[in-house]
Amino acid sequence: MTFLSILCALLLEQLKPLRADNPVYAEIKSLAVRMETWFNAGHERHGQMGWFLMMGALMLPTALIYWVLLYYKLYLAAFAWNVAIVYLTLGFRHYSHYFTSIQLALNAGDEAAARSLLAEWTKQDTVGMEVSEIARVAVEKSLITSHRNVFGVFFWFLMPLGPSGAVMYRVSEYLARAWNEPEHMRNEAFGEFAARAFYWIDWIPARLTAVAFAVVGNFEDAIYAWRNFAHRWKDEAIGIILSAGGGAMGVRLGSPLENAAKVVPSDAATVDIGEVEIDTLPGEEPSVRALQSTVGLVWRALLLWMLLLLLLSGAVWLS
Predict the structure, then answer these.
(1) Stated pTM of the model
(2) Residue 186: left (phi > 0), alpha (psi -120 to 50), or beta?
(3) What integer pLDDT is reported at residue 20 of this predicted model?
């Protein structure tokens, strides 16, 4: 049932992508705002209370409906419920139109359109960005989005929590952003627990995604970049995914401003940047071609996950 649920949800999303501004997501965002309004009194424990209450309000009904359907042996209804939850928690096509449009704009030489699309997607200033910088940011955003909207969801859906696990992952990822990234929430103690909770929830999925990128790409360079450069990012999970993904594609990702790896195509052991000595490894500067490489890498990683799940499901049935 698990493999078929994911497969059907993926096919459904390809045929009818769920909009990022759909009513379900809007209600969850509204609930997160209300929780912050009700509980935020400037202390971390208040954020912890809000986090657990919101998780309970969303996970308990999801799990209860699933187990009631199984208890009464309504297997077809339970299967449909699984498909619906995976469809709602997946985001494979939510933002793919941005990535595709940026790729088409760069192929056509329309850098202004590419900058505008990238600014709309990432909510950051793109004025004056060169083609290589546009490509780098688009590739990084795509890899992180693919992990958090696809592979992380897969992992928790496969756990004993089932559909409620997928809900937990996506909601915890959203709360980690919503209660920390907005201007009025930065440096607020209220969001600290949400960020720490998602760090541990994402600890295993982030590493499995990096392993998948390494297996379907340049394994040696991916593992080397992961081991030697992941710690240069402020966010450990992002560092692992981007360093492994960039190494798998032979593309240098990250910027000095992020304390990320500055990878240069050289056989030298190190290179000095100011007062900082940074290791180097083979890699190309991001280009339009890197966007196509990213699409191939993500799809191959997805096929790897589905193949492993199929083999696991087959082993369970045979046993």
Answers:
(1) 0.89
(2) beta
(3) 75
